[in-house]
Task: inverse folding
């Protein structure tokens, strides 16, 4: 989301500023921040100190902090960090005025309607092939551990026409993959048009345009969407379906609004509709009150689903959330660490097993560029979002190619062009 938001900010500032990749050259540096876990915030604090230090050699330099931390910490940042500007995720349109008038230097007003729908993002850090397209903002789910509903405000869906126009334009410019983004894309609703309808319209723009989406909340993943996915080859067979935990009692404390059984039913439905669909997840280790038994249920859920990929975190208490106010962060750090390690070790095995099953199969790969490790290899992804590396041949990025898999690691598939 922040990657996409930064492209919107670049667009909003494009009349007044040119982009540079050299921080020493810049007169304005904005750090787009995330509040989701404490270590994300600590990294930002360290980075901000470095950047503010650059003011010694450039008296014109302004350093601003934008995004979720701006929302969460507000004026506190001006006092503790000597930043010039603090701007929350719904106030980016005010940046040019704030910079021209030098005041006020804090704007963290959240909006119920802002979707930046008519802003055409500047893809300044893009490979020219894949782009993120924001389709909704905010979140109404209030999972008890999560700060997002407080920092990003209420859920709102972007105008469908502006989404489709943006994607048509991307395709014409040579892009071949879009990822539709929202905290919970399955609750997209613009004037009665739902996500299944939207993704169908996007898929129909051109069969050569791949469509991905993130993130799906399990409580809202509909069979209607799965049916649409079966009809269009260019909708990628990959669903990010964060479970967070495999224990119904833990899920209840997390306010996830589904049980283990409900989650497994959704997985079964995915398998039934799209047998070769990759499923990935987010897992939190050591949430308030998590028993050893509940942790084991998470491991067994992971086994049962056989995730292709997972993002795995230690629970990090966030001020202002329900868990902060009403539950106790009572799992000792060493236990959180051990549980997380068990989760990570298991996921590595599952990823490797999944990749090993792909050896001998042939996949359509969209080429994204030259492999980072080898000039004579290209890399791209298959529909399941797995990275595939293969010898270059006469191909270039943006091309589709059939690759037969010959070997793998837990993270990557290797193969030859067929
Ligand atoms: N502590 C740890 N992980 C968290 N996430 C969200 N809030 C927290 C928290 N307080 C994780 C969830 C979510 C992902 C984006 O970040 O797994 O899906
Ligand atoms: Fe946070 Fe839950 Fe909303 Fe995801 S769905 S952003 S975890 S509150």
Result:
């Amino acid at each position: 989301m922040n990657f996409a938001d930064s492209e919107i900010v670049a667009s909003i500032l494009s009349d007044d500023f040119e982009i540079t990749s050299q921080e020493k050259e810049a007169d304005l540096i904005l750090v787009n921040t995330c509040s989701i876990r404490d270590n994300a915030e600590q990294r930002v604090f360290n980075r901000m100190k470095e950047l503010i230090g650059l003011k010694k050699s450039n008296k014109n330099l302004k350093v601003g902090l934008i995004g979720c931390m701006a929302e969460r910490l507000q004026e506190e940042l001006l006092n503790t960090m000597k930043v010039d500007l603090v701007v929350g995720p719904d106030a980016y349109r005010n940046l040019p005025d704030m910079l021209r008038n030098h005041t006020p230097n804090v704007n963290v007003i959240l909006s119920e309607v802002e979707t930046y729908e008519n802003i055409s993002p500047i893809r300044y850090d893009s490979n020219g092939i894949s782009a993120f397209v924001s389709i909704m903002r905010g979140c109404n789910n209030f999972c008890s551990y999560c700060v997002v509903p407080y920092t990003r405000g209420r859920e709102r869906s972007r105008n469908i026409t502006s989404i489709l126009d943006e994607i048509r334009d991307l395709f014409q410019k040579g892009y071949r993959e879009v990822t539709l983004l929202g905290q919970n894309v399955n609750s997209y609703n613009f004037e009665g048009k739902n996500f299944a309808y939207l993704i169908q319209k996007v898929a129909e723009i051109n069969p050569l345009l791949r469509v991905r989406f993130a993130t799906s909340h399990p409580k809202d993943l509909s069979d209607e969407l799965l049916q649409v996915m079966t009809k269009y080859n260019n909708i990628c067979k990959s669903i990010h379906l964060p479970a967070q935990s495999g224990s119904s009692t833990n899920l209840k404390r997390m306010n996830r609004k589904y049980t283990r059984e409900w989650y497994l039913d959704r997985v079964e439905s995915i398998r039934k509709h799209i047998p070769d669909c990759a499923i990935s997840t987010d897992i939190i280790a050591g949430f308030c009150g998590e028993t050893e038994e509940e942790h084991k249920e998470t491991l067994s859920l992971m086994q049962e689903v056989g995730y292709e990929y997972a993002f795995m975190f230690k629970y990090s208490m966030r001020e202002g959330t329900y868990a902060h106010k009403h539950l106790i962060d009572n799992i000792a750090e060493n236990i959180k660490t051990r549980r997380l390690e068990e989760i990570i070790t298991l996921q590595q095995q599952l990823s490797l097993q999944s990749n090993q099953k792909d050896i001998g199969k042939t996949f359509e790969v969209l080429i994204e560029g030259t492999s980072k490790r080898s000039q004579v290899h290209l890399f791209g992804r298959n529909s399941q979002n797995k990275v595939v590396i293969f010898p270059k041949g006469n191909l270039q990025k943006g091309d589709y190619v059939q690759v037969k898999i010959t070997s793998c690691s837990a993270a990557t598939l290797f193969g030859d062009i067929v």
